[in-house]
Amino acid sequence: MDKSEAKIRVLKLRDLIDKYRYDYHVLDKETISPAILDSLKKELFDLETQFPELITKDSPTQRVGGAPLASFKKVQHEQKMISLNDAFSSQDLEDWLTRLKNYLSKDAPLSINSFYCDPKMDGLAVELVYDDGAFIQGSTRGDGEVGEDITQNLRTIEAIPLKLTNSPAGKIIARGEVFLTKKEFARINKEQSKKGEALFANPRNIAAGSLRQLDPKITASRKLDFFAYVLVSDLGQKTLNESYQLLNHLGFKTNPLGKTVKDLRDIFAFQKELGKKREHLDYEIDGVVVTINETKTFQLAGVVGKAPRGAIAFKFPAEEQTTVVENIRVQIGRTGAITPVADLKPVQVAGATIKHATLHNEDEIKRLGLKIGDTVIISRAGDVIPKIIKVLPELRTGTEKTFKMPSVCPIDGAKILKDGAIYRCSNSRCGARSRQNLYHFVSRCAFNIEHLGPKIIDRFFDEGLISDSADIFTLEEDEIKVLERFGDKSAQNIVQEINERKTITLPRFLYALGIRNVGEETARLLAQHFSTRYPLPATRANIITPSSILTATSLVTIENLQTISDIGPVVAQSIFDWFRDSHNQNLLEKLSTVGIKIQNKQKSTSNANLASKTFVLTGTLKSMSRDEAKEKIRALGGEVSSSISKKTNYLLAGENPGSKLAKAQSLGVKILTEPEFLKILK
């Protein structure tokens, strides 16, 4: 994105964020989820970081909270109540620490010895003022400089001390979070339901609304709670950890889960462990507040925009995020059903990177009002398959495009017909044929990807993750583990095996292409023909790419294909037609792009010790698989057949041989044990 595009995006983001922030912070109305508001703010922050000249004083990144309500007395904070910037990933946190260290090293080299990690409460920040130990004033954050005087309402909260213990003389200022427990939230909504009144959306809304009640009795009835998290007054504390200890000493309640940690690794571990406890806590949290523990270093880090440099909110993976629809393509299912799939700008949702979302049908696209290029909200609540739940038309620039269902099938060019809400390829075998090609491609004698059985291929095919064999090698763990009945381990195993299978021999590769009438033996002969008659460009390790095969096949004629042993007119025509098909040519190019490497080790067989010898295999071998044995035989000039005849030279018999053993004995074919076979290979 260049500066002019960024400027347009920044202006639209600011307008939308301001609207949602006003609803949320001033009116206490949740018109969009906090996660989406965070996502929009993060995008704006990133753009302003990339183009700092676009930052203005009225940007949402430079402001805190909302304007104070007119119905309360205004309170001027002695020190500005600033809020925190957010980090949504480990990379965000690493970037924050890098920026922080770079800033601190400008004037005087300072080392960061430790951090304090505290659960980030989902409540309302307040400031408490005490004089000679007595509570005299309480206020909201407001715009950071001026808040609302809610002293009487705060007095109703049992967790807020009205008189400090062990307090020195003079003024003491502390800050913390007012919140509502999950238990109280359920109780209040139950009462609302009995009255036939609207239910509250979340505990945070009730807490905020309760503190802004003009009648303290209503606030008292809500049974709010409180955790202190900062001692503003200087009582000699040198670290945030000491500040927490002093707060406890004065009689404040602090979150017992907070702790001091040494480095990023500890921070990641703390967040992960807290995430496991999250559902079992009696209050809502949405992440971890990470702060430089040393008070002096924190103060020297100062403030940037609306937030301190020395602290950040490390959020839990959001179940909703915003992203951009970069394209909409169609996927052909097993039954020929055509499903639109959105290709997304990659985004982290609930701990997984999401790049695609199924749109189900054309009606769903119309319901959403979706266009290519739109900013959308992606949801993945409860680890379910990600889906687009809303379009944000306010962020449109006019360059968005309307999607239209194709009139012909992108696989075979057949006409597309509408069947109710579903579009289908008129060729009833279209989806099934594509699926069978994928089964063949990953089979034992081809790429041999054992974790991709037919059911898993079907699932990936129908979900729009793969449409051809090249797509297999673009699969990532995150897009697999979000599918129902798939987890982290199964996704890891699948992707690991796929990556291990990116290198393949030329005969296996040609067989994997699924050319009609080309079996294992024909593929081997074809590979030898290409290598000897049309030398393929290769590296020193005899590695070629799928696209380089196009160079050789462009010179092939039906006549010279028929010069290959056992290849007649029908097979030659199949091979010739396959390599002339534009769809297949594109596939070879795509296979090169995804990193497929082909080993072209064609040895001369004129002096090979198995030249012109025919083998048949039966039973199980201990030292190698039967496929490996076949490759070794062929590498030494031998041939492999699937059936016994008088022309068979050897039957290689492993453990538990089948009926071929008896037939070989009756025909007088020499039978080799595995040890005898290994001697021949030497």
Automatic annotation (TrEMBL):
Catalytic function, reaction form? NAD(+) + (deoxyribonucleotide)n-3'-hydroxyl + 5'-phospho-(deoxyribonucleotide)m = (deoxyribonucleotide)n+m + AMP + beta-nicotinamide D-nucleotide
Q: Does the keyword DNA damage apply?
A: yes
Chain sites annotated for binding NAD(+): 83-84, 118, 141, 177, 315
Q: Which residues of this UniProt protein bind Zn(2+)?
A: 409, 430
Its GO biological process terms? DNA repair; DNA replication
Q: Which family does it belong to?
A: Belongs to the NAD-dependent DNA ligase family. LigA subfamily.
Q: Spell out the NCBIfam families in the cross-references.
A: dnlj, PRK07956.1
Q: What does this protein do?
A: DNA ligase that catalyzes the formation of phosphodiester linkages between 5'-phosphoryl and 3'-hydroxyl groups in double-stranded DNA using NAD as a coenzyme and as the energy source for the reaction. It is essential for DNA replication and repair of damaged DNA.
Q: What is this protein called?
A: DNA ligase
Native organism is Candidatus Harrisonbacteria bacterium CG10_big_fil_rev_8_21_14_0_10_45_28
Tell me the organism's taxonomic lineage: Bacteria, Candidatus Harrisoniibacteriota
